[in-house]
Structure formats: structure tokens, C-alpha cells
Write a structure and sequence with these properties.
By secondary structure, this protein is mainly beta. It contains one helix and eleven strands.
Length: about 160
Amino acid sequence: MTAPVPTVRVDPPGVKLDDGYQTLITFAADADVDLWEKSVTPPGIEGGDAVETTTMHNEIYRTMNPRSLFTLTDMTTTCAWDPVFYTQALALINVKTTVTVTFPNGDTLAFFGFLKNFTPGELVEGTQPTATVTIVATNQDPTTGVEEAPVLTVAV
């Protein structure tokens, strides 16, 4: 193989999101939870740390390779909430279900995951109470145990 050659950037074919409104989260196990999304950080994709492949035969550089597997990272949302959510959270915490993120353009990202935590913020006079909710992607079908990738459905 030869040395790397620069590549010219071309215009992307897609349509970028121009505003984060309205991004919603749905738990299949309870589609009408008493949360009102104020901000949403969708899951990311992480490749993990590099696998070092350096040997005593390297002369100048340490060499590395990417890992074979990747991770769908945790997602978080800051929400307004009803105290009833305590009961709903107890029924959802650590329960594997389908989680759907609906993006402002109507695209959806569905994945298997679970509610990891519900952390209410400080209650202060004159300020809307909020809570932080964290969701973990499991990438595993809860009924079969089979590895399953997230599914992006593009709105028509």
C-alpha cells in the first residue's frame, strides 16, 4: 500500500437539521410517561480505544488499529416532570424495552435499551422543576438475546 493521499471534501447529499425542536423520546413499555422533553442528547456511536499493534519492529511510529465492535452511547434528556413519574420510573428502571427518538424532521431512531436513572433537579421557587433522565442502549433483543443494531427510519 502507498502513503495516504488527500481527499477533497464534497457537499453532503442529506438535509441538515436546522433546529432541535421538537425531539421526543418514547419508551415502548410506557409510551405516555409524565415527562416533557426540554433538551435531548441522542445516543452517539463510539468505536472505543485503539488497539495498539506496535512491536519491536516499528522504527518511528506506534501503530494502531480500530476495535472491531462499537458502542451506542448513553442518551440523556432534561425534562419537566410530574411527581407521578416516580411510580413510572420504578416500573421502567432497568427494564429492557424499545426506545425511540423522534427527530425534528420526523426521522426516528429505535433501539433496545433501558432507563438507567432519573435524577430530579433542585426545586426552586420561580423556576420550572426539571430532571435528568439517562437511557442505556443494550443493542440486544430482550426476548431473544440476539444482538440488534439500532434502526434509523427516514421520514418520507
